[in-house]
Specification:
The protein is mainly alpha-helical. The chain has twelve helices and no strands.
Length: 241
């Protein structure tokens, strides 16, 4: 599974495509997203342990998200139980222990900086922790697609793909940050009701475009027409004149 170079335009098309897919599965993505955010946030408040456990939960939920979105895109079927099934699949604890260890070690460093009051190191260590989780999630998903792939080969391939598309990914993260800011300006309720479900498929779209040859323009066109069908079905009839 060789990564490919993605055009810079994908940085915003990923977001547009994510929104179109989410329009049809808004309630499902909202429920799954809220469960993930509230669970990870709640665990993070546990002293010391929370700083290590919450990224591990993020890994589990993110991997479950990608697997469920893949199911929805290929079969157009998905329920809340699928999210729980994929997120806490026993195969994660059998096959992906190296990723859990890597994420745990990197976040131990971040927790150590926080406890040692090395505030100048908190920001870079936080970025490193987030990037580590991003790479590990993509590498783990890659192993699910290609079962013969070893965990270290999956990480090397993911790092190569991320480096090849560093600019596109960086610009996309800027757009996401602006999206978050705009949602927060709508108040916290707006953030949860709009940003959370509308970006739910985003990680899967990034992965599939880079490693699996997904044509984002065709996907955007396909799901744009599907969301129009949904809007037509739920739209109230015109009042008779």
């Amino acid at each position: 599974m060789d990564p490919r170079h993605i055009p810079l335009e994908y940085s915003h098309r990923w977001i547009f495509c994510s929104i179109e897919i989410s329009k049809k599965y808004y309630s499902l993505f909202l429920g799954c997203g809220l469960l993930m955010i509230l669970s990870v946030t709640g665990v993070s408040f546990i002293p010391v342990v929370g700083g290590i456990a919450s990224p591990l939960m993020t890994f589990l939920f993110s991997l479950g998200t990608m697997r469920m979105v893949h199911q929805i895109i290929t079969t157009e079927k998905g329920v809340f139980d699928d999210f729980l099934k994929y997120s806490f699949d026993p195969i994660v604890f059998e096959k992906f222990v190296p990723f859990l260890v890597i994420i745990g070690l990197v976040n131990c460093i971040s927790v150590g900086f926080a406890l040692g009051k090395f505030h100048y190191a908190l920001f870079p260590s936080g970025i490193l922790a987030n990037l580590t989780t991003f790479v590990c999630v993509h590498a783990a998903y890659m192993m699910l697609i290609k079962s013969e792939l070893t965990w270290d080969a999956a990480i090397k391939t993911t790092l190569r793909g991320s480096w090849m598309n560093a600019l596109t990914l960086f610009v996309s993260f800027i757009f996401i940050t602006l999206f978050v800011t705009g949602s927060l300006l709508m108040c916290i309720v707006g953030f949860f009701l709009y940003f959370v479900p509308m970006t739910f498929p985003l990680n899967f779209l990034m992965f599939s475009s880079i490693y699996d040859g997904l044509d984002i323009d065709m996907t955007l066109k396909t799901w744009g027409s599907k969301s129009q069908e949904v809007q037509t079905i739920v739209a109230p009839p015109d009042n008779p004149t």
